[in-house]
Amino acid sequence: MRRGRRGRRSRPAPASATSAALPPVHAGFDYQIGGAYTPPSGVQVVSRDHSASPAPGLYNICYVNAFQTQKIGQPGGPADWPSDLLLKNDDGDVIIDTDWDEAILDITTQKKREGIAEKIDAQIDECATKGFNALELDNFDTFTRDVVEGRITEEHAQTYIRMLSAYGHGKGLAVGQKNTVELAKNHAANGLDFAIAEECGNPEYNECADYLAEFGDNAIFIEYTDAGMKNACEYGDRVSVVQRDLDVLPKGEDGYVRKTCP
C-alpha cells in the first residue's frame, strides 16, 4: 500500500554485487506467495513464500517479509519476536500496520537491525538451502506508512536492506527490490538486482516507466485490477506482467484470478 512520498536524501554506501543469475527477462511469471500450486503452462519464473518449496525446473524467487512481522496470531507474528525489536509509538505500544495486521520491525539502530537481520537471515538460509534462485524482500517501503509517523527513515531502510542483500548475495541469491520506486535510483548501491513492482500500472501511480528507467527490462510487474493491468501491459513486450487476485490465492480456490497480457 502506498501512503505518501518523502524526498530523496544522500546516496548510501555501496553494497556487494552479485554473480547470481537474474530472472529471465520477459518470461512467463506467476505470483504464488499466497500458496503454491502447479505453475500454468508457459510460466518460467515463480515467486513463492520461503516456507514453500521451489517449483522444479523453473526460476524461483523466495518471498521474505523482511520489514514487518507476519500477521497477529500467525507463526512469525508479533508474539514470536522480542518486544525490543518491534517499533513502538510514544505510549510504548507496538505499532501495527492495520492493513495487514502486522507489527513493524524497529530498524532504527544498528543493534536492532543486527538482531532483526539475524532472524531474517535464517529465512534467507532456508531459501538458499531449498534451492531458490533469488529473494523478494517485502515491505522495503514501510518507512512511507502513515502509521510509522517518520520514526523509520529511508536511511534506516537502506542501511538495513544492504545488510540483507549482502547476506543473500553471499548465499548465491539474486535480490529483488520490492516496490519503493522512490529509492530505485539507489538500487545498485543497495545491492538490489531487479525490480518486483506491484500496481505500477494503477492509474493513481503510473510508475511502471520509472522502474524501467532504473532497472531496464529486469523487472516484474504484478497488478490486481483490470485498469492497472491495461497500463502495465503497455510494457508487456519487454517485461513479465501478471494480474492476480489481491489475496494471491492458490489455483482452485474461490476468488483466484490470474491473467496475462494479450
From TrEMBL:
Question: Pfam families attached here?
Answer: Glyco_hydro_114
* Compositional bias ranges of the Basic residues kind: 1-11
- Domain Glycoside-hydrolase family GH114 TIM-barrel residues, every copy: 29-248
Output the InterPro entries linked to this UniProt entry: Aldolase_TIM, GH, GH114_TIM-barrel
Protein keywords: Hydrolase
Using the UniProt annotation, give all residue ranges assigned to the region (Disordered). 1-21
Q: Where is the composition biased (Low complexity)?
A: 12-21
* Highest taxon above the source species: Bacteria
Q: Name one GO molecular function term.
A: hydrolase activity
Query: Is Methyltransferase among this UniProt entry's keywords?
Result: no
By what name is this protein known?
Glycoside-hydrolase family GH114
What is the protein's species of origin?
Streptomyces melanosporofaciens
